[in-house]
Write a structure and sequence with these properties.
By secondary structure, this protein is mainly alpha-helical. The protein is about 70% helix and about 0% strand. The longest helix has 25 residues. It has 10 helices and no strands. Helix 1 runs antiparallel to helix 2. The termini are far apart.
């Protein structure tokens, strides 16, 4: 049980904190929350399980091995004790940090669970967190050149939508926010509120970019056409699939 080749313990622990946070946060929102229509749902197992697919063998798994659970860390370390033992204690510490962070942010996005009322701050935090988890998963998959990145990214998005859909609507995308605003189907989404949502989403994306670039020692990837394609092809692909995404959301 050690960081993957080419990564240091800080890189691995950042990934363990992020995805242990995500796992615990999703559990709290879909299996523990009693208000906001999540109580008694039938999707909690799906939402929780797909966190592991999003991170375990793809994005963070390429860096830390993807434990996200003290029991898993101990089990792996014990099973390979002949190759060295002790990393599990470092993993466990950072996994507990991720769990504590999940509790703090659960209280922030769901104050109604603790006798308060849902506020705009809760909704903006929801949009920030959902966008952050989506973008950091995209970045780690691209940087790790994982073979099934789309599957991992989709699982991250789905789990966060299940977790936060009844907090902010789980837009996690400025284009989706614009589509919902233009549709007029969400009465409390005013132009001013939509602007705040998009600002939260952009900040979440920026924080995520700094995270995955930091894990890869400052390396990143250029946004542009793939090999053999021009900007015309990019425009068609982005238009068609952004349309499809927004259409399905609506």
């Amino acid at each position: 049980l050690t960081p993957s080749a080419g990564f240091g313990w800080i890189d691995a622990m950042v990934c363990e904190v992020i995805y242990t946070f995500m796992l615990c946060f999703v559990v709290l929102n879909v299996a523990v929350a009693e208000k906001g229509a999540n109580s008694g749902n039938q999707f909690y197992g799906l939402a929780i399980g797909f966190v592991i697919i999003a991170a375990g063998v793809y994005s963070a798994g390429m860096v830390s091995g993807g434990c996200f659970n003290p029991a898993v860390a101990i089990g792996i370390d014990l099973s390979s004790y002949s190759k060295g033992f002790g990393w599990c204690f470092i993993f466990i510490l950072w996994e507990f940090i991720g769990a504590v962070l999940a509790v703090a942010l659960f209280r922030l996005v769901r104050p109604d669970e603790f006798g308060g009322e849902k506020t705009l701050v809760a909704e903006l935090a929801s949009e920030f967190l959902g966008t952050y988890m989506l973008v950091v998963t995209v970045g780690l998959n691209v940087m790790g050149r994982t073979p099934d990145g789309a599957w991992s990214i989709a699982c991250a998005l789905m789990s966060m939508i299940y977790a936060l859909g009844n907090v902010s609507g789980a837009h996690f995308n400025p284009a989706v926010t614009v589509a919902i605003l233009a549709s007029g189907r969400c009465e409390d989404l005013t132009p001013a509120k939509a602007g705040k949502f998009m600002a939260a989403q952009v900040l979440g994306a920026m924080a995520a970019a700094l995270t995955y670039a930091g894990v890869y020692n400052g390396a990143s990837f250029k946004l542009g056409p793939g090999k053999g394609f021009g900007y015309g092809g990019v425009a068609v692909a982005e238009f068609v699939f952004t349309f499809l995404l927004c259409f399905v959301v609506l």
